[in-house]
Amino acid sequence: MIDIQNLDVWFGDGHDRVDAVRRATFAVNAGESFGLVGESGSGKSTILRAITGLAPTWSGRIEIDGQILHGKSRDRTFYKNVQMVFQDPYASLHPRHSVDQVLGETLSLHGFRDIDTRVVKLLDDVGLGTRFRFRYPHQLSGGQRQRVAIARALAGEPDILLLDEPTSALDVSVQAEILNLLCDIRDQRKLTYLMVSHDLPVVGHMCTRLAVMKDGEIVEVMDVAQLRQMKASHPYSQSLLDASVAQ
Predict the structure, then answer these.
(1) What is the pLDDT of residues 126-162, one digit of tens each?
(2) Dihedral sign, CA of 164, 150, 63, 209?
(3) N or C terminus: fewer CB in 10 A for the chain?
(4) Where are the domains of the chain?
(5) What is the DSSP pairing of strand 160-164 with strand 82-85?
(6) Distance of CA 16 to the CA centre of its chain
(7) Strand pairing partners for 5?
(8) pTM of the full structure
(9) Which pLDDT score, from 0 to 100, does residue 90 have?
(10) Does domain 2-246 have CATH number 3.40.50.300?
């Protein structure tokens, strides 16, 4: 479903050039949940931005569901098939748009006509219900806002969700609820997830395989069994595992 080969992403030119990602290679199977882990600045989120066209300067190969991508342009079909859930649910929602407007406008952009029915179903699917339909972001908790953001991502009936630290801005008590919701949605809709996180327990809960990133490079791809057994091949990966236990 996702095939990344020798991906380089950079910002700036000449002496000002910063190489954010170098020679990243990995693949994600249909229906799989795959994690990208590493410290801040390791290039994890930059890979998601290259996929969506938000990081315009890149080279290598990005193939999504059989479609090879070029540059920063993405057609309407791409955005129907691939959606992203961002880290900060408040910043990603328009403060003056009600939940109904957020979901209704998204459904309209995707060409759906039975807007009312679909808005109600989306709210039910993310565990909110119709009582939240006409509320504004400032009237919602962080977890409720993230549920709205997930509902918006699901509106176009995508096959792939890109998850950029979807729980890191939430209270610890709410994080598990959102992670369990995402797991249930993936099972129900047979979705493919590519998830960025610095939190190894979160990745262990959500993913079947993961790539460890350091300074813009993937140093190891491992499965979740290795993660749970605290066994890594690369010294940096092992140091992350050891640090997660020490916390």
Answers:
(1) 999 999 999 999 999 999 999 999 999 999 999 999 9
(2) positive
(3) C
(4) 2-246
(5) parallel
(6) 29
(7) 61
(8) 0.94
(9) 79
(10) yes
Distance CA 120, CA 168 (A): 27
- Element at 3 (helix H, strand E): strand 2-11
Q: Tell me which residue has tokens 């595992």.
A: 241
99-109 vs 115-125: helix crossing angle, rounded to 10? 120
- pLDDT > 70 in the chain, percent: 99
CA atoms lying within 13 Å on the CB side of residue 247: 10
Within 10 Å of residue 60's Cβ, how many Cβ atoms?
16
User: How far does CA 239 lie from the centroid of its chain?
Assistant: 25
Start-to-end CA distance of the chain, whole Å, equals: 35
Tokens for 174, please give them. 């709410």
CA atoms within 13 A on the CB side of 77: 6
Length of the chain: 247
User: What are the angstrom distances between the C-alpha of 102 and each of 10, 136, 172, 218?
Assistant: 33, 10, 26, 36
